[in-house]
Amino acid sequence: MVPNVPTAIQSVGHFGLASDLFGWPETPTLVPVAISWTQGGSIVEVEGSFDNWQSRQALHRSGTREFAIVKMLPPGVYQYKFIVDGEWKYAPDQPAMYDEMGNVNNVLEVQEYIPEILDSLDSFLAPSSPTESYNNILFSPDDFAKDPPACPPHLHLTLLNMPQIPDAPNLLPRPQHVVLNHIYNDKNMTLAGTQVMGTTHRYRSKYVTVILVKPG
Predict the structure, then answer these.
(1) Counting C-beta atoms within 10 Å of the first and last residue's C-beta, which end of the chain has fewer, N or C?
(2) Phi/psi of residue 20, each to 5°?
(3) Co-location of 22 and 93 in the same domain
(4) DSSP secondary structure letter of residue 38
(5) Is residue 176 part of a domain?
(6) 40-93 residue pLDDT tens
(7) Quick one: 100 and 15 in the same domain?
């Protein structure tokens, strides 16, 4: 089944001096992007919203099961899909999303490369410390007898520890950014004989929480 034609979300750029004076649209900066397929096959092609799903490009074999291609794309969000030996497929090991027709397509975000200007970073560097301020004194027994630091309080605000809202039990509060990409273990459930672990990730404005439940 041919996937629906999604539209790439292009980022809005600025106009240069010549564009402001003459009204010429600025040519978007192209960024090299590697697209790979690692699920095997004989002939692998890719098609996507890079050109509004108008053409296919063959990937080059780089191993027994690996195929790859490098495309020059302007910044934006694109959907794409692979054609492996004549069949439409998406890569399960790459980010994916559903389109309007319910088809699963891979998705990538191309960001504009901004080179770092090292001279502008000097003001953020800490001043150099004198050599005599360092030593090589060994740790004393008192150093090893100290209690570990307390857990930061914001790490207790995980979705596993948040009580349900009485009026909306299916809704959860928005997670704080400091708790993202951490793995949490519900100690209360562990004592009850069940191990519950969870982690929360964010993609743009969406939050996804994965919870693993297994016997203790």
Answers:
(1) N
(2) -70, -35
(3) yes
(4) -
(5) yes
(6) 999 999 999 999 999 999 999 987 889 999 999 999 999 999 999 999 999 999
(7) yes
Give me the domain span that covers residue 34. 9-110
What does pTM read for this prediction?
A: 0.45
CA distance 39 to 159: 35
174 & 88 share domain: no
Torsion of CA 92, 60, 6, 203, to 10 degrees: 40
At 202, give phi and psi (nearest 5°).
Answer: -125, 135
CA distance 196 to 20: 58
Structure tokens at 41: 């096959």
Tokens of 79: 């959907």
The single residue listed with the structure tokens 């953020």 is: 124
How many independent structural domains does the chain possess? 2
Q: How high is the pLDDT of residue 68?
A: 94
Q: Are residues 31 and 96 in the same domain?
A: yes
| 74 and 103 Cβ atoms separated by less than 8 Å | no
Q: What angle do CA 50, 54, 59 make, to 5 degrees?
A: 65
Q: How far is CA 4 from the centre of its chain?
A: 24
Instruction: Judge whether 206 lies within some domain.
Output: yes
Q: Give the Å distances, CA to CA, from 191 to 40, 63, 150, 157, 180.
A: 45, 48, 22, 20, 25
Q: Please name the residues in contact with 73: beta carbons below 8 A apart, sequence gap of 6 or more.
A: 30, 31, 33, 50, 110
